[in-house]
C-alpha cells in the first residue's frame, strides 16, 4: 500500500491501530486496506478478530473506551481520522452508508418503514414531503421490494427478515453514498434470502458504481460476492488479495484453515474440519506470528520476531515467513490429512 | 455427481422395530379467530434410534414449532406425538408433569447467550434440571454435571463461570451439556450452529456426531446450512410453510432432489466452489414466467406453487408426500406433482441465467 493511491480510492485505511479498554490493549494493529469505486472488498476472520472494530472506525462510531492510536483513515482521499462528530454526521448517509446484521434492531418498531426512509431523505437532502415519498417508493423498487406502495405503510414487525434487510439497504443508499459498509449483513438470513441479498449488492455495485466493504466470517459468502478479500486474524491482516487467487492458492496457513472449514458447497458425507485451539486474547503478549500456536506448519523463526506482510504478486500479500516456502503446502497437506 | 445408494441403517430395516419418536398427522394452529395461523399441516415424522436427522427450511417454515410440539410446549390441534410407544401430546396435569420430568426429549436452543441464565454459573445451569427432577443428592448431581461437561469436551474448571465469561462455542456446548445431563433418549437441536463462526460450527456438529456414536443417541438438527448438514446427517427433512416437502436419506436427496424447493435451497447455499448442477436462476420464478392463476395461490394449492417456476394447473391441489421410485431400500418421499418432469425443465431454463 505504497505510492500514490489510485484516483478512484473511496476508502483508504493506512496502518491503523485501535486500542480498547482506554488504551489497555490494542485490538486492531497496523491494518491497511483500501476500497475503490465499483469494487466489493470482503473482510473475513473469526469472531473477535477486529473486523467490526475496523468497520466502526471507518464509520467514525468507535465504542466508548476505544481509540485510534495510530494510522489514518481517508474517505475519497480526504483524511477523516480526526473528523469532528458534526463532520461525521455530514458524511453519514451522503458519503458512507452502512448495513448491519440484525435489521430489526436498527429500525424503530413502531414507525412505518416508509416514514423511517423519508425521514432520512428529508433531513439529509431537504426534500419535501411529496418528493421524499416519491423517492422512497423508487428506492424500495430499486432494492427489489415487491409492492413498494404497500411496504411503505408497514411497520417492521409486518415484514420478513429479508424484506427488512432490503429496507435497511434502501435507507443506506438513499442519499447516494459512494461507500457501503455491510457488517455481517447476510449472516442472520436464510440461504435463499442470503443469495438474493448478495445479488442485490452486486447489482447496486454495477448500477451505481458503489464501493462496498463486506464483512463476513464465511469465506464461501465472500467468494460469492467480493472482488478482493482481506483476511483478519487476532487484529492483524494476515493475507489479502483477489478472491479467486486466495481461494485457489491461499498463501497463509490461517486462510487455508478458513477454507477447510468454510461451506464448501459439497453435499456429500465428509469429515467436518475444525481449526484447533483458540485465537489469542486481546492484549496477549506475542512476539512472533499470532497464529503460530495453532499453525500446523510453524517453525522456530515464526515465534522469534514479528512477521511482516510479504508481497507475493500484484495485490497479493501474506503475513507468513513460509509464504514462499514450497514445503509449506506439503507440510499443511500432511498435517490436515492427519487430523 | 454420482449417486451411491445409501447404506440403509440397521435401525430402518430391523424387523418389527418401531421409531423412537413418531409425529403423526400433526396440525398446529397458533392464535385464534382471525389471528389463527396454520403453522404445521399434516406433519409426519419418524425418528429411529441412533440416527441424525437434519431438519431444514426457512424462517417461518415451522421448524421451531415442530421442535416445541415434540417436547410438549405446543399442543397440536390434530394428530399426536408418540415417544417410545406412548403418546406424549395432549397430556394434562399430573401426567404432563410426570412426562416432563422424565426429560425424554431435550431441546437445545439457538442462541445460548439468550437461552442461558446470565446470573447462574455453568454448574448451576447444567444441574438445575436434575435438582428439579429430584431423587439425587448433591454429590450425585455434581458427578452427573461433571460427566455431562466431559461429554461435550469442557473442563470442570468452567463450573463456576457464568455464560458471559465463556466463549460462544463454549456456551453452546454448555447448552448441550445441560440437555445431556437429563439422560435424554432424543436430542432436538434448534439451530445449534447458526450463531457460530465456521470453525466452531463444525466443532459443534462433530461433537453431535460423536455423541450419537458414543451414546447411540438419536439427534435432530435444525439448520439452514445444508452443506455442513450433509457432512454428518443420515436423513434430511425439508419443511416449507408448515409442510414436509421432502424426506429422505441425505446422500440420495442431495444427489438428486425430488422437490424444486430442496434444489433451490441447495443452489442458494454459498460455496467456495462453483460446480452446482443447477443455478438459483433456473429454480426461481422470473417475470418471464406466466402469472399464476387464482387457483395456484389459493390456500388449497401446493404450498410452494407461488414460488415454483414449474407450477401447472394440477398444482392447485396440495400434493401428498409420496414415496420416490428410486428410493431403493430406504425411505424417501417427496410432495411434488411434477417431481419427474421439473429437473429436465430446470436444465432447459439454463440458457438465460446470468453469469455467476
Report on the architecture of this protein.
The complex is a heterodimer of chains A (339) and B (356). Helices cover 35% and strands 22% of the residues of chain A. Chain A is α/β, with parallel strands linked by helices and 339 residues long. An 8-stranded mixed beta sheet of chain A has the order 6-7-8-3-9-10-12-11, with helices on both faces. A 4-stranded antiparallel beta sheet of chain A has the order 2-1-4-5, with helices on one face. Chain A is globular and about 70 Å long. The two termini of chain A are 37 Å apart. The model of chain A has no long low-confidence stretch (mean pLDDT 90). Chain B has 356 residues and is α/β, with parallel strands linked by helices. In chain B, 34% of the residues lie in helices and 18% in strands. Chain B is built from 14 helices and 12 strands. Chain B has an 8-stranded mixed beta sheet, with helices on both faces. In chain B, strands 2-1-4-5 form a 4-stranded antiparallel beta sheet, with helices on one face. Chain B is globular. Classes of the chains: A alpha/beta (339), B alpha/beta (356). The A-B interface holds A 46-47, 160-161, 188, 190-195, 198, 217-221, 223-224, 247, 257-259, 261-275, 278 and B 1, 58-60, 167-168, 194, 197-203, 205-206, 209, 224-228, 230-232, 250-251, 254-255, 264-276, 280.
Amino acid at each position: 500500500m505504497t505510492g500514490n493511491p489510485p484516483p478512484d480510492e473511496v476508502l483508504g485505511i493506512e496502518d491503523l491501530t485501535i486500542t480498547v479498554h482506554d488504551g489497555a490493549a490494542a485490538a486492531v494493529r497496523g491494518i491497511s486496506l483500501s476500497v475503490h469505486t465499483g469494487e466489493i472488498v470482503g473482510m473475513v476472520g473469526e469472531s473477535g478478530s477486529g473486523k467490526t472494530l475496523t468497520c466502526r472506525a471507518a464509520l467514525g462510531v468507535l465504542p466508548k473506551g476505544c481509540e485510534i492510536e495510530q494510522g489514518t483513515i481517508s474517505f475519497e482521499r480526504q483524511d477523516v481520522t480526526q473528523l469532528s462528530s458534526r463532520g461525521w454526521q455530514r458524511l453519514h448517509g451522503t458519503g458512507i452508508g452502512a448495513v448491519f446484521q440484525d435489521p430489526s434492531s436498527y429500525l424503530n418498531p413502531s414507525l412505518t418503514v416508509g416514514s423511517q426512509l423519508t425521514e432520512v431523505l428529508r433531513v439529509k437532502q431537504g426534500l419535501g414531503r411529496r418528493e421524499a415519498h416519491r423517492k422512497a417508493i423508487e428506492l424500495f423498487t430499486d432494492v427489489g421490494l415487491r409492492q413498494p406502495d404497500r411496504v411503505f405503510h408497514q411497520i417492521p414487525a409486518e415484514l420478513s427478515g429479508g424484506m427488512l434487510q432490503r429496507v435497511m439497504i434502501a435507507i443506506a443508499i438513499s442519499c447516494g453514498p459512494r461507500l457501503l459498509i455491510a457488517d455481517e449483513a447476510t449472516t442472520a438470513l436464510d440461504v435463499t434470502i442470503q443469495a438474493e441479498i448478495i445479488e442485490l449488492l452486486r447489482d447496486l455495485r454495477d448500477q451505481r458504481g458503489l464501493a462496498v466493504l463486506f464483512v463476513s466470517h464465511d469465506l464461501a459468502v465472500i467468494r460469492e460476492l467480493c472482488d478482493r478479500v482481506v483476511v483478519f486474524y487476532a487484529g492483524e491482516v494476515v493475507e489479502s488479495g483477489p478472491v479467486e487467487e486466495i481461494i485457489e492458492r491461499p498463501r497463509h496457513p490461517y486462510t487455508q484453515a478458513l477454507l477447510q472449514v468454510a461451506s464448501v458447497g459439497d453435499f456429500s458425507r465428509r469429515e467436518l474440519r475444525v481449526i484447533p485451539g483458540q485465537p489469542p486474547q486481546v492484549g496477549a503478549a506475542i512476539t512472533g506470528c499470532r497464529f503460530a500456536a495453532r499453525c500446523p506448519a510453524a517453525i522456530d523463526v515464526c515465534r522469534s520476531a514479528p512477521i511482516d506482510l510479504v508481497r507475493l504478486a500484484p495485490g497479493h500479500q501474506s503475513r507468513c515467513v513460509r509464504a514462499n516456502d514450497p514445503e509449506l503446502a506439503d507440510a499443511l497437506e500432511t498435517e490436515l490429512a492427519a487430523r | 455427481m454420482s449417486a451411491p445408494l445409501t447404506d440403509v441403517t440397521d435401525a430402518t430395516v430391523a424387523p418389527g422395530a418401531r421409531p423412537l419418536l413418531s409425529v403423526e398427522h400433526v396440525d398446529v394452529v397458533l392464535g385464534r379467530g382471525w389471528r389463527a395461523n396454520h403453522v404445521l399441516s399434516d406433519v409426519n415424522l419418524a425418528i429411529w434410534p441412533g440416527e441424525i436427522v437434519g431438519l431444514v427450511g426457512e424462517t417461518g417454515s415451522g421448524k421451531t414449532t415442530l421442535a416445541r410440539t415434540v417436547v410438549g410446549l405446543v399442543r397440536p390441534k390434530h394428530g399426536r406425538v408418540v415417544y417410545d410407544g406412548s403418546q406424549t401430546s395432549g397430556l394434562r396435569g399430573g401426567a404432563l408433569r410426570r412426562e416432563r420430568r422424565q426429560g425424554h426429549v431435550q431441546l437445545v436452543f439457538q442462541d445460548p447467550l439468550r437461552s442461558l441464565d446470565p446470573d447462574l454459573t455453568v454448574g448451576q445451569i447444567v444441574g438445575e434440571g436434575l435438582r428439579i427432577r429430584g431423587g439425587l443428592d448433591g454429590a450425585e448431581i455434581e458427578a452427573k454435571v461433571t460427566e455431562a461437561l466431559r461429554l461435550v469436551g469442557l473442563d470442570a474448571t468452567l463450573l463456576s463461570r457464568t455464560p458471559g465469561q465463556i466463549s460462544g462455542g463454549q456456551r453452546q456446548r454448555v447448552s448441550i451439556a445441560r440437555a445431556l445431563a437429563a439422560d435424554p433418549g432424543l436430542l432436538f437441536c434448534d439451530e445449534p450452529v447458526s450463531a457460530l463462526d465456521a470453525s466452531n460450527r463444525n466443532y459443534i456438529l462433530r461433537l453431535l456426531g460423536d455423541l450419537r456414536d458414543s451414546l447411540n443417541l438419536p439427534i435432530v438438527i435444525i439448520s439452514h446450512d445444508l452443506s455442513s448438514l450433509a457432512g454428518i446427517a443420515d436423513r434430511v427433512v425439508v419443511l416449507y410453510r408448515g409442510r414436509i416437502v421432502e424426506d429422505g436419506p441425505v446422500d440420495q436427496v442431495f444427489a438428486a432432489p425430488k422437490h424444486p424447493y430442496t434444489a433451490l435451497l441447495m443452489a442458494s447455499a454459498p460455496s467456495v466452489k462453483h460446480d452446482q448442477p443447477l443455478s438459483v436462476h433456473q429454480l426461481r420464478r422470473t417475470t418471464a414466467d406466466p402469472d399464476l392463476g387464482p387457483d395456484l395461490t389459493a390456500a388449497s394449492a401446493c404450498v410452494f406453487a407461488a414460488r415454483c417456476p414449474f407450477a401447472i394447473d394440477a398444482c392447485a391441489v396440495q400434493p401428498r408426500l409420496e414415496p420416490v421410485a428410486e428410493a431403493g431400500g430406504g425411505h424417501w418421499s417427496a410432495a411434488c406433482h411434477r417431481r419427474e418432469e421439473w429437473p429436465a425443465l430446470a436444465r432447459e431454463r439454463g440458457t438465460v441465467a446470468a453469469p455467476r
